[in-house]
């Protein structure tokens, strides 16, 4: 969870913000407390433009990690007039199934029909 970082760019600045200030796990219980970092709270809760909204109910029903990632990707484009098009290789890279530098073996390769 500590690796979740957001990049915020404006005309004059470039920022890297971490989402969580603290994550506290309770031993012997299935619960945790999350404290959002102050700068990220402002970005998440005081947005008027340049943000992506999700339908919470729809997102929570997804069980596959790839389905969740795809939902995030397509939600970014739902209010746009244009339709985004990517090659299969680009799509695999977005889902972290393919190393963009080609050093790691590709996951889910097409092995041909038998």
TrEMBL record:
Annotated transmembrane regions: none
Domain Initiator Rep protein WH1 positions: 3-74
Record GO biological process: DNA replication initiation
Superkingdom, natural source: Bacteria
Alphabetized GO MF terms: DNA-directed DNA polymerase activity
This protein's UniProt keywords: Plasmid
Gene3D superfamilies listed in its UniProt record: Winged helix-like DNA-binding domain superfamily/Winged helix DNA-binding domain (1.10.10.10)
Similarity comment: Belongs to the initiator RepB protein family.
Protein name according to UniProt: Initiator Rep protein WH1 domain-containing protein
Organism: Hymenobacter swuensis DY53
Upper classification of the organism: Bacteria, Pseudomonadati, Bacteroidota, Cytophagia, Cytophagales
């Amino acid at each position: 969870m500590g690796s979740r970082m957001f990049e915020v760019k404006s005309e004059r600045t470039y920022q890297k913000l971490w989402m969580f200030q603290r994550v506290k796990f309770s031993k012997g219980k299935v619960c945790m407390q999350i404290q959002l970092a102050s700068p990220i709270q402002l970005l998440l809760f005081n947005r008027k433009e340049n943000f992506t909204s999700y339908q919470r109910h729809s997102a929570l029903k997804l069980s596959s990690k790839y389905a969740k990632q795809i939902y995030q990707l397509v939600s970014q484009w739902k209010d746009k007039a244009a339709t985004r098009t990517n090659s299969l290789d680009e799509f695999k890279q977005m889902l972290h199934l393919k190393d963009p530098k080609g050093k790691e073996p590709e996951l889910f390769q097409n092995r041909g029909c038998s």
